[in-house]
Amino acid sequence: MVNRWLELSLETDAELAEAISEAIFPYVEGGVALEQTHRQQPGGEIADRWEDERVEGPIIVRAYLPDDETLAERKRKVEEALAYLNMVRPTPQPAYRIVAQSDWADAWKASFKPLRIGRRILIRPSWMEDASPGDAADRDVVIALDPGMAFGTGLHPTTQLCAAAMEDYVQPGMRVLDVGSGSGILSILAAKLGAREVVGVDTDDEAVRVGRENVLANGVADRVTIAHGSHEVAHGVYDLVVANILAGVIIRMLAEGLASRAPRFIFSGILDAQATDVARAAEAAGLSIVEQRAIDDWICLVCARRGEQKR
Length: 311
Description:
single chain, about 300 residues, Alpha-Beta Plaits, 7-stranded mixed β-sheet, 9 helices
């Protein structure tokens, strides 16, 4: 039995936090906590984040390594993963502290806070009750995501952009395809916004496993299916396709005929320097740009088949 744990923590922004989470996830125990810091009001009180305020940094990333015979190797792997990330973008070094076993469970859960994105989407750990004030709880779309979600927690700007667009474009009774479903957060959101059927696909085995677990935990397994593979495995025609993936993958899928799968599309995961190329690929595939949304240097394009823009 483990008597002590080594806690590692580092402070960064929301975008890098998810990359760090995914990089160190294989080497830690119990998942990775992405803790959103809160704004301070003038009187020193914590200000809740409501409505359409976007997530702002810093984010504290926390994870735990068991203090046993695996500790040295796990720590080496974590620091190696962070060093690789640092080659792409400056990455902070973690701080370490020892946590006793008796305090570990509480410290682990204390790192997870409810997160609001879009106008009324609340992401919370499954063990935490909704703490929305007044009638906010009645109008919230609540999604439970537990630790270990190295495939999309809602913190990343691309996920926020997709979620906010889905609030505007998902209608009750729709059939929705979620390409690159990851943790399943957008598939679950589509169902909770009223979609009658949602198919999420991902090429990563672990993402598929995690996505399926989250679908069950959120009580939408009767409407959401998570499958392994790309958009080709999701047969049929849909009312809306959501793709929160890389720009190059979106361009390739459009060339492969993705535009025939639905009258409307939400594309995210696009850097501002790539937006023109994605827009050209969409237009070449017979789509029109309905609107463009942005957070920092990330772009979300809402597209529609020509003639469908006003429907």
